[in-house]
Amino acid sequence: MMSNSETASEHTRRRKVIFCDFDGTITENDNIIAIVKHFNPLGWESIVDDIVSQRITIKDGVGKLFRLLPASQREEVIAYAIGNARIRNGFAELLEYCKLQDIEFLVTSGGIDFFVYPLLAPFDISVSHIYCNGSDFSGDQIEITWPNPCDEHCSNSNGCGMCKTTIIRRYPEEQYIRILIGDSVTDFAGAKLAEIVYSRSYLTVKCKELGLPYIEYETFHHILDDLKARQSRED
Ligand SMILES: [Mg+2]
Ligand SMILES: [Zn+2]
What we know:
Radius of gyration: 19 Å
Largest sheet: 7 strands, mixed
Order of helices and strands: HEHHHHHEHEEHEHEHEH
Bound molecules: magnesium ion, zinc ion
Number of domains: 1
CATH architecture: 3-Layer(aba) Sandwich
Strand order of the largest sheet: 4-3-2-1-5-6-7
Strand content: 15-25%
Number of strands: 7
Structural class: alpha/beta
Distance between the termini: 17 Å
CATH class: Alpha Beta
């Protein structure tokens, strides 16, 4: 016969869902910064400063950065972004584990479609599980488009560009164990909602500062090990 607590945990068994950042998380570096650094259009540094110091929103800043680049450079920009990026170790293994364990895996990225989709193409992730910003090369300059805006609950007044918390809120905590993987300030609002936070770099600093629990990782193998350890405790 089951004890009361076992019966209760059976009733409340929730499915795990992972919200994984892209730039600086799935890829080792930030691709947007790498692009503007490489093509070096006049004025990019001050825009990045404005974003980092939160004088302008991510959405306004990223939009402005790409408007510095002529749309005619499309092929060079795409080729550079894809050629320059490196996937963090253990990513394929983590995806395989998620598939086996029926853990839903979502990419929640503030990156741009023209590098996010090609870089993820070798991996078995459904396109419907990849959230990122779009791009339009039909004008004179590269224009970023925003198919995933903030909902009415986001405190960023539509400044996120790709709103990670809006996606997370579609997975209610009554039904899901929400797991976030990230590396920067743009992951922090999501980290506050998530039950498990895997962090590195600036996200770790932010979590420490505000006393939010986190588990540090350097490769996806660390995350995989931790997920497996949790699983064996649950079984
Ligand atoms: Mg990132
Ligand atoms: Zn938002």
